[in-house]
Amino acid sequence: MFYMVSRFLKERLILIALLPVAVVLLGRFWWPGETSAWASSTRFALLTFLVCLLFVGKPVFARLDKKLGVVLLLFGGWVILSVALFDGQSEVLRRGLVLAVFICAVAVLKMDGEAALLNLLRAAALVGTAAALVTIYFELERRGLDFRYRAFRLHSSGVPGFAEFFNPIISGMHIAFAGLTACWCVLFARTPAARIFWFCCLSIIAVYVFLTYSRSAWLALGLGGLMLLALRGRAVFWGIFVGAAILALVVITIKFPQVFSVEAERGTTNRDLIWAMVFDSMPGYWLAGHGAGVEMSQMSIPGQTVVNTHSLYLEVLFQYGVVGLLLFLVALLMATRAMWIDRSNLAVLGVSLLTGSIGVMFFELHSFIHSPNLIWLWIWFPIAIALGSRVKRNAH
């Protein structure tokens, strides 16, 4: 009986794994009810996958990248110790378990359902393009052709419940994820018509990302795009993208002549003060940190009060200490190396996402182990791809 159930679930594991990943990738744009309903649906779908994985888990786990898996297990063990011994928040354990199941689901799809996952990513890129186009249209309809630099910042579509991110940085990063996927589609499209279509999608997304005036989103899209070109860009693609970038730069310089002076004047937007306060709070906590999930005390900077480190690296250091930060950095390096060696279609996209996030983490992102958020997309998703990349490497 157990064998029959195991065989039945094994044949359908890809479909069951695809469901929670689809909820994460597509549900962030629209989901019935509040944001909590989306998170609850994600947890339910992941629980379903976990139950199935327990029946067929051994053959699946045996094919994962063992070295990266060991590092992730060590980091998970450190998180547990942080909660048990260093006054961490127990809620992190539940969130960490949900996150671990998500990582397993993506890894399973990388090993056995890469084509299905790529189609899902294409669908998410199309939804992201639609969100960008709708947002730009409604913003222009509401404000007119007001193209003064930073006269407005895109963050919500204007359609109730659809692509309402309410924050320019968050919206920029969500749409930049779709932008990198669209860029990947341009490079891997099989027909000229498909390349033109995806290039149009990428152009719409690029306009949206620029109009969020989120330097984090600019950096993520720029670094990830360069990595895609480095891995898969032929000379003609380099020419097209460099030409488009130069044209965009000329248009921006003409339309927004003050762009460089304004951004230079903004500088780090007081992040240096925040980072200094983070380091000032570390004496006595360097090795193990303040505890998993522990938030910083409110910090006052000119014009506002902040409660996060404005650097994911510093958040990991603050909560998990030098040990946790080193384990996290080792995981990032090993994941990057695994996907670099793999070079499969999905691995190329994964390493570009991770490259973009590695740069952004110096200046932005927070809530390291949490409910579905940007870190799931930009960090844990590509790490999960790397975890499932071993099969492809052996095949080569």
Characteristic key phrases:
single chain; mainly alpha; 16 helices; 396 residues; disordered C terminus; globular; two-stranded antiparallel ribbon
Description:
This protein has 396 residues and is mainly alpha-helical. The chain has one domain. It has 16 helices and 2 strands. A two-stranded antiparallel sheet has the order 1-2. α2 (13-27) crosses α5 and α3 packs across α5. Residues 391-396 have low confidence and may be disordered.
How far do the termini sit from each other?
37 Å
Q: What's the arrangement of strands in the largest beta sheet? A: 1-2
Name the shape in a single word.
globular
Count every beta strand, where a strand is a DSSP E run of 2 or more residues: 2
Contiguous runs where pLDDT drops below 50 for at least 5 residues: 391-396
Oligomer: single chain
Number of domains: 1
* Helix percentage range: over 70%
Mean pLDDT: 88
How many helix segments?
Answer: 16
GO cellular component, one term: membrane
Transmembrane segments: 12-31, 37-56, 68-86, 92-109, 116-138, 165-189, 196-215, 235-252, 273-292, 312-334, 346-369, 375-391
Membrane topology: Multi-pass membrane protein
Domain O-antigen ligase-related: 202-329
